[in-house]
Structures are given as structure tokens and as C-alpha cells.
Design brief:
mainly beta, 4-stranded antiparallel sheet, single chain, globular
């Protein structure tokens, strides 16, 4: 069982940056692929980024590629999402997910409560 808690969201102006953090409990964290998803008001949840258990392989949605960076620190049971060049279309609740794989949310077993990111124009 893994519990996930996100932090780091907030209000930022367009062009700004934020770093989201996801703290994970459980001794098996380092064996899980992890991911970030987001859900904007009135829209379906969408994949943002994923990272392998070792951190050596990452994958991104086209909409964030080149602007966002996912990383992890297995010694600290942490996953991060660094977001640069933010624009209003990035406004959403961002969720940390683990225990799954790929770009489909239903494939993941564990979810955090989400953290709100709002980008003003």
C-alpha cells in the first residue's frame, strides 16, 4: 500500500514556473513507476508525465514536452514535476499516481488528493 501527498501548487503568472512535489509512504516506492496527471474544470483527466522506477526513463504528453520535467528521489520517497513556461491552459488540479504504467489513469492503483495549479494571463 502506498499513500501519496502532493504539494507545491499555487497561483502563478503566465511564463512562470512551479515545482510540484509528491511524497510517498511505503517501503516499496522505489519499485513503482510514477506519473503525474491533471484535470482542468469541465475536462477529463489527462496524462502529463511518467517516470520509471529507477528514474532513468521518462515520458511526456506532447502538450508539456520541453516545458515540464518529471524526476524522483527514491531515497526520499519523492516524485517531482518541474513546470516551466506555464500558460493558462496548464491550469488544473495535478495528481500524483503510482503503481501502474502508461498514460491511462485507470492503470494506476494509488493516487494523491491533488494540488491546484492556476496560471493567470
Amino acid at each position: 500500500q502506498v499513500q501519496l501527498v502532493e504539494s507545491g501548487g499555487g497561483l502563478v503568472q503566465a511564463g512562470g514556473s512551479l515545482r510540484l512535489s509528491c511524497s510517498a509512504s511505503g517501503r516499496t516506492f522505489s519499485t513503482y513507476k510514477m506519473a503525474w496527471f491533471r484535470q482542468a474544470p469541465g475536462k477529463e483527466r489527462e496524462f502529463v508525465a511518467t517516470i520509471s522506477s529507477s528514474g532513468g526513463v521518462t515520458s511526456y504528453a506532447d502538450s508539456v514536452k520541453g516545458r515540464f520535467t518529471i524526476s524522483r528521489d527514491n531515497a526520499k520517497n519523492m516524485v517531482y514535476l518541474k513546470m516551466n513556461s506555464l500558460n493558462p491552459e496548464d491550469t488544473a488540479v495535478y495528481y500524483c499516481a503510482g503503481g501502474g504504467f502508461g498514460v491511462v489513469g485507470s492503470a494506476y492503483d494509488y493516487w494523491g488528493q491533488g494540488t491546484q495549479v492556476t496560471v493567470s494571463s
